[in-house]
Design a protein that fits this description.
GO terms for molecular function: (3R)-hydroxyacyl-[acyl-carrier-protein] dehydratase activity. It comes from Paenibacillus protaetiae. The protein is α+β, with helices and mostly antiparallel strands and 116 residues long. The chain has a single domain, classed as Thiol Ester Dehydrase, Chain A (Roll), CATH 3.10.129. The protein contains four helices and five strands. The longest helix is centred in the middle third of the chain and has 15 residues. The two termini are 25 Å apart.
Length: 116
């Protein structure tokens, strides 16, 4: 599943989460920190993973989750989310446009046909 990480979405998440870190919303601050453009918040990416998975599996719900962030995701980037079912655990891999794995994680689910 693909999703474009937009500047607007990052700003909305910054407002909602009360995360005013400049590298997420200010292009100059992002450049000073070594990034071409503002970067997405890790929890925004995790939330997207949950939302995208649940939109395809509406009978399930997430009981627990963990994610490791390996590299930043720049704004205005298409991101690929790959989900692999391991019974009640769903492994997720988030890959940027350049093919680099940006995050990896797992969440446990209940409900639906794959639950035990």
């Amino acid at each position: 599943m693909k999703k474009k990480i937009t500047v607007e979405a990052i700003r909305h998440y910054a407002d909602a989460s009360k995360d005013p870190a400049a590298i997420h919303i200010d292009p100059d601050a992002a450049r000073k920190a070594g990034f071409e453009r503002p970067i997405a918040q890790g929890m925004y990416i995790m939330g997207l993973a949950h939302s995208m998975y649940l939109s395809s599996n509406p009978a399930q719900w997430i009981k627990s989750a963990r994610m490791t962030f390996l590299s930043p995701l720049l704004s205005e980037t298409a991101v690929h989310f790959k989900f692999e079912s391991m019974g009640v655990d769903i492994e997720v891999t988030v890959t940027g446009e350049n093919g680099e794995v940006a995050a990896r994680g797992c969440f446990s689910v209940e409900g639906g046909p794959d639950s035990e």
